[in-house]
Amino acid sequence: MKNKKITTVYAISIFLLFLLSILTIVIPKIMDVMPYVISDSEMAPEYNQGGLVFVKDVTEPIHVGDTITYYENQGKAIKTRRVLAVDHNIDGYFVKGDNSDKAEMGLVHERNLIGRPHFYLPYIGFLADTKAMNFLKCSLFIAAILMTLSTLIFQTELKQKLRQQAE
After folding, report:
1. What are φ and ψ of residue 49, in 5° steps?
2. Among candidates 36, 60, 57, 39, which has minimal Cα distance to 48?
3. What is the pLDDT of residue 138?
4. Helices assigned H by DSSP within the chain
5. β-strands 52-56, 67-72: how paired?
């Protein structure tokens, strides 16, 4: 009975990890989008801090009112904001967060543009963080080793019980 409970817990854990990997790896590859973490609350409630926004390359012109994701500070930060105005002379955009009273300082140049948010998953932005991902990988590796060892131990115990019953 104990072995059956452990097997059920393992199966559920593996299924949840599989589902999480499909959400964060497979679907974005199929849909040709890149995940980025929302690092501030400037676009709340549409995009909350800690959420994961999936951005697609821009294929159509950007207009006032569109939401864009772009690099800031030579690529050190990534932001998602709403376009207030488009400057066609110097290929740039004036932007503002929905949760902010003031427009962002400066102009977002076309070369810094990543794309438009295609869809958004709240609360799972930590998965795209490198430190969190390394911790998750180590945890999964240790969990896999422990699952394997416990399975081997239970199988050994089961074989011993069967031998004793046969004798």
Report:
1. -60, 135
2. 39
3. 82
4. 2-21, 27-31, 130-166
5. unpaired
Asked if 140 contacts 127 with a C-beta cutoff of 8 angstroms, the reply is no
Question: What are the backbone dihedrals phi and psi of residue 42, each rounded to the nearest 5 degrees, phi first?
Answer: -65, -25
Element counts in the chain: helices (H) and strands (E) = 3, 7
CB atoms within 10 A of CB 127: 18
Residues with Cβ within 8 Å of 115's Cβ and at least 6 positions away in sequence, in order, are 34, 55, 56, 57, 58, 68, 69
Please tell me what DSSP assigns to residue 124: -
Provide the residue-wise pLDDT of the chain in tens; the chain has 167 residues.
666 776 788 778 888 878 877 777 777 888 999 989 999 999 999 999 999 999 999 989 999 999 999 999 888 899 999 999 999 999 999 999 999 999 999 999 999 999 999 999 898 887 777 777 778 778 878 888 888 888 788 788 878 888 888 87
- Helices 2-21, 130-166: inter-axial angle, 10-degree rounding: 150
Q: How many angstroms separate the Cα of 106 from the Cα of each of 94, 96, 100, 166?
A: 7, 11, 15, 81
